Structure formats: C-alpha cells, structure tokens
C-alpha cells in the first residue's frame, strides 16, 4: 500500500505529510536562482508522555524543467528523501 506524500499550506506554514506516523513543518520556502532551498523545520517526536518538536534542516530542489520537487532531511541519523 502506498501513501500520498504532500506539501501543503497548513496554519500559516507548509506541512509535509502523508508518511506513516510522521509529518514536519516548514515555516517558509525561498527558492534561490537554481531552484534550491534550505530552511529550518520542526519534526514532532514522541517522548512517551506526548510529542515534542525537534528542529531539523529541510533541504529541497525544484527541477527547473518540470514540476518535480525533491525534499530531504535527516532525523536520528536517517536521511529521508521524497520526490513530489
């Protein structure tokens, strides 16, 4: 079974969702002249008593020749990469 990964506006920020049991938020996205961006985001982690936001660096690349966006970030030494 495949899930749909989406990047959408959510309460004044962008939210990357659709991954089982996780999501993260990006406060802003500013593309440079090569279609790349890097921004600080948050990744909610379960603490046992609830959730706490962990800061992460989210990087992205918009392909200039198409509508493809690649987003990546690292959590707990594991790289996650998604192509939208």
How would you describe this structure to a colleague?
The protein contains no helices and seven strands. By secondary structure, the protein is mainly beta. It has one domain. Strands 4-5-6-7 form a four-stranded antiparallel β-sheet, with no helix packed on it. The protein has a three-stranded antiparallel β-sheet with strand order 1-2-3, with no helix packed on it. The two termini are 18 Å apart.
SS strand fraction: over 45%
Instruction: Give the count of helical stretches.
Output: 0
Mean pLDDT value: 86
| Helical content band | under 10%
Low-confidence stretches: none
Can you count the beta strands?
A: 7
The rounded distance between the terminal residues' Cα atoms is 18 Å
- Count of folded domains: 1
Biggest β-sheet: count, sense, barrel? Answer: 4 strands, antiparallel
Q: State the shape.
A: globular
What is the string of helix and strand elements?
EEEEEEE
> Which value, in Å, is the CA radius of gyration?
13 Å
Biggest sheet: strands side by side, in what order?
A: 4-5-6-7
SS-based class: mainly beta
